[in-house]
Design goal:
This is DDE Tnp4 domain-containing protein. It is a single chain. This protein is elongated. It is built from 17 helices and ten strands. Strands 1, 2, 3, 6, 7 and 10 form a six-stranded mixed sheet that branches. Strand 8 (356-357) and strand 9 (364-365) form a beta hairpin. The N and C termini lie far apart (117 Å). The relative contact order is 0.12. The chain is of the alpha+beta class.
Length: 418
């Protein structure tokens, strides 16, 4: 064998030995599951089943019946099969983690130790479960589309709060968030925080009939409503509202309206309070009082939402915009669902949770949600912006005011206490 051939053989042998040594010295593969996760069991839901009903309800914010009803509807979308490497997390645990996250606003770290799953797992499964909840409950928020449906809401508002022709109370809230990824200032609002806007309309039973979520916080509060599909349909007269009618004992025909605060512009279909000449006993003060009684519905609806779903009690610490929107939507749909279910409604919205009124004096009795949400920083009011109303809108408000001062339209205590 020549010297050159011998040299090649020696070099090849050296490379083989070196490669083998390198493989033997290579660091062992790190474990793919933490030790404390290896001992996990998914028995927490079973523990809750064995306990008293009140424990289950406090943990999930709903009855056992409603929990499993929703689980059955979303299970096909969120369930995964076991593999030979690991056991898949059951659909009911995914649902329970999501409900607990919405109900408490707990961090992923807290949920990780409670359920013995990784933060990465929670982050990955949460968007899927949120979408499944929203899809399953789509029919629980429905905008009226017929004359009969709108009149039914108006009759309830007049019966409960003595405001005729009212088809809903409208308001909006800035939902404070962390700045989403790959954005600069789109979500930066007038308060100096980042937010998206939740705009809602409620019927007389504290249920949402319409919501719009996701308008970026930088958009002026006055422009939030204009950007909604509801506003566009209202302008084009495509909502199916009843025809204008005169109030009892009056001649002028009035449209059906929404009641709002100063964040909205006065228009033919949106009534807001007077801003001046509010001396005691004045007709404008009486109008404001009557409007506030009806508008308090949406204020209480938002109040209960943030009292039960404490995810709203602080900035939402998720940076993916679509997930943030689905968090808000899931809570809103769950609100309507739980309000409409007999076995959940009685403890979701307990007696005394809403503002009430002493019928003999008109004195407001604050609802319990106000104490629960005291110091809330996650939901913030839209900014009030003065706007010049159209003359016809002014005439409509004046007619409502005159009716409230008339013998047939007044309340027994308003002259004495207002």
């Amino acid at each position: 064998m020549s010297d050159s051939s011998l040299l090649l053989v020696i070099s090849a042998a050296y490379l083989i030995i070196a490669s083998a040594k390198k493989r033997s010295d290579k660091k062992k593969r790190s474990i793919w599951m933490k030790n404390y996760l290896k001992t996990r069991h998914f028995g927490i839901i079973d523990d809750l089943q064995l306990d008293e009903d009140i424990v289950f309800r406090n943990f999930t914010r709903m009855s056992r019946t409603n929990f499993y009803y929703l689980l059955k509807k979303i299970e096909p979308e969120i369930e995964k099969q076991n593999t030979r490497f690991r056991e898949a997390v059951p659909a009911k645990i995914k649902f329970l983690i999501t409900i607990r996250f919405l109900a408490t606003g707990d961090s992923f770290s807290s949920l990780m130790y409670l359920f013995k799953v990784s933060k990465q797992f929670i982050s990955e499964m949460l968007p899927t479960v949120l979408k499944a909840i929203v899809n399953a409950l789509q029919n629980y928020i429905k905008l009226p589309s017929s004359d009969h449906e709108w009149r039914s809401i108006a009759e309830e508002y007049n019966k409960r709060w003595n405001f005729p022709h009212c088809v809903g109370a409208i308001d909006g809230k800035h939902v404070v968030i962390q700045k989403p990824e790959n954005t600069i200032s789109e979500f930066h609002n007038y308060k100096g925080t980042d937010s998206i806007v939740l705009l809602g309309i409620a019927d007389a039973n504290y249920c949402f009939t319409y919501v719009n979520v996701g308008c970026q916080g930088r958009i002026s509060d006055g422009g939030v409503f204009k950007n909604t599909s509801f506003s566009k349909k209202l302008e084009k007269n495509e909502l199916g509202l009843p025809e204008c009618e005169a109030l009892p004992g009056r001649m002028m025909k009035l449209p059906y309206v929404l009641v709002a605060d100063d964040a909205f512009a006065l228009s033919e279909n949106i009534m807001k309070p007077y801003a001046t000449d509010l001396n005691k006993g004045s007709p404008k003060r009486v109008f404001n009082y009557r409007l506030s009684r009806a508008r308090r519905i949406i204020e209480n609806t938002f109040g209960l939402l943030s009292a039960v779903f404490r995810i709203f009690r602080k900035p939402i610490e998720i940076k993916v915009e679509e997930t943030i929107v689905n968090i808000v939507l899931a809570c809103v749909y769950l609100h309507n669902f739980l309000r409409m279910q007999p076995d959940s409604a009685k403890f979701y919205s307990t007696s005394g949770c809403f503002d009430n009124e002493d019928c003999s004096t008109g004195e407001i009795i604050p609802g319990s949600w106000r104490e629960i949400t005291s110091g809330d920083t996650g939901l913030r009011q839209l900014r009030s912006i003065p706007r010049k109303p159209a003359s016809n809108a002014t005439n409509i408000r004046e007619e409502f005011k005159s009716y409230f001062m008339s013998e047939i339209g007044s309340l027994p205590f308003q002259d004495k206490y207002l």
